[in-house]
Design a protein that fits this description.
With 361 residues, this protein is of the alpha/beta class. It folds into 2 domains: 124 residues, NAD(P)-binding Rossmann-like Domain (Rossmann fold, 3-Layer(aba) Sandwich), CATH 3.40.50; 162 residues, NAD(P)-binding Rossmann-like Domain (Rossmann fold). It is built from 15 helices and 12 strands. A 7-stranded parallel sheet has the order 8-7-6-9-10-11-12, with helices on both faces. Strands 2-1-3-4-5 form a 5-stranded parallel sheet. It starts with 5 loop residues before the first strand and ends with a helix.
């Protein structure tokens, strides 16, 4: 028998798709907006919704209550059978309000914001999800690092003498009677990730995925955040906890993987650039304003910063006259980190299928 009760969902912009799929009361305007949002990767968004509904059994149709704050969450919980959260806290007060809850779903892998012991005491199952979109973000971070390390953004397609000369590499052949011919263009300043030090500021869902991939390249991984990870997790991720000042001073690559908001705006500014290892690279796939733009440009002009990569941009769409485009050690991309859209669609389908199985048990 299908379980009665509403589904309470944190009002994340991707989690709104849960309401579109499950709640017949969702407005046509919202459905149309998301059909357009997904169209370049999934032109048949309506077909996607139908396929997921066919896979979730008695979970459809279902009232979906979207909530933004802790107060809204507690107010929406009475009479609900399941709860989906990304960052909102789930503690004993929330579980008292949601006395009919059967399952709590974390929209992510680590349920740090969920009191799992309290859930266990009440017989509430806690589900997690390793998000494909987070994996894609980590892949882009590594791709941007490799692009800067190998200067691919400057060299791609430039294989003729004239093209290389145009960007400052004058061709002079080696004496092939004696030498190999590798790097015949004499590109200097190329780097390897192997044995370089990566500093990740914020080892959350995406930061962890970056660390896993960096370890495979043989990088030394430092991290800092407000709460240190348990020793077992540090060992699993090959990551060493250090203060921010130490991370900046020792890292060849710095990745600030922080959430947006007033607390993290301009988190990397003049003081932090001054503490960074000279020639280090900064790769930002979090929020652009985590890095102070004026301080960034100063660090690039002075040569203290070895290179910079950014996704998303300071403004979208970007401008052709953006000063950052004038630096040959800068890579900008138009907010593609979590793509393709199928990552989110498959994450959400898996989430709804998991809720359906648990509620049917």
């Amino acid at each position: 028998m299908p379980v009665e009760g509403a589904l309470v969902v944190e009002d994340d912009r991707f989690l709104r798709v849960v309401g579109i799929v499950l709640d017949p009361g969702t407005s046509r305007e919202r459905i149309g907006a998301y059909a357009d949002f997904f169209a370049h990767d999934e032109p048949d968004f309506g077909g996607y919704c139908q396929r997921v509904r066919a896979q979730v059994g008695g979970l459809f149709p279902r009232e979906v209550r979207l909530v933004e704050t802790q107060d809204e969450l507690r107010a929406a919980l009475p009479g609900s059978c399941a709860l989906v959260v990304e960052s909102l806290r789930v503690g004993r007060d929330e579980l008292v309000a949601g006395s009919a809850l059967r399952v709590v779903q974390k929209f992510g892998l680590k349920p740090r914001n969920i009191d799992t012991a309290a859930c266990a005491d009440r017989g509430i199952k806690v589900l997690t999800l390793r998000r494909r979109a987070n994996i894609a973000c980590a892949e882009l971070a590594i791709a941007l690092m490799l692009t800067l390390a190998k200067k691919l953004h400057r060299l791609a397609g430039r294989t003729s003498v004239d093209d290389l000369s145009a960007i400052g590499y004058a061709y002079k052949p080696f004496d092939r009677r004696h030498t190999p011919n590798s790097n015949w263009a004499r590109i200097s300043g190329l780097r390897t990730l192997n044995r370089a030090t990566l500093g990740i500021i914020g080892l959350g869902e995406i930061g962890r995925e970056i660390a896993i991939r960096a370890a495979a390249f043989g990088m030394r991984i430092l991290y800092c955040q407000r709460t240190r990870l348990p020793a077992a997790e540090e060992h699993e991720l090959h990551a060493t906890y250090v203060p921010l000042e130490t991370l900046l001073a020792q890292s060849d690559w710095v990745v600030p993987q922080l959430p947006g908001g007033p607390a993290t705006r301009a988190f990397i500014g003049r003081a932090q650039f001054a503490q960074m290892k000279p020639g280090a690279f900064l790769v930002n796939i979090a929020r652009a304003d985590v890095v102070d733009r004026s301080a960034l440009i100063e660090a690039l002009r002075s040569g203290r910063l070895g290179g910079f990569a950014l996704d998303p941009l300071y403004e979208a769409p970007g401008r052709r006259d953006d000063e950052l485009l004038g630096f040959d050690n800068v890579v900008l991309s138009p907010h593609i980190a979590a793509q393709p859209r199928f990552n989110a669609l498959e994450d959400l389908a898996e989430l709804m299928q998991g809720l359906s199985r648990e509620l049917a048990a």
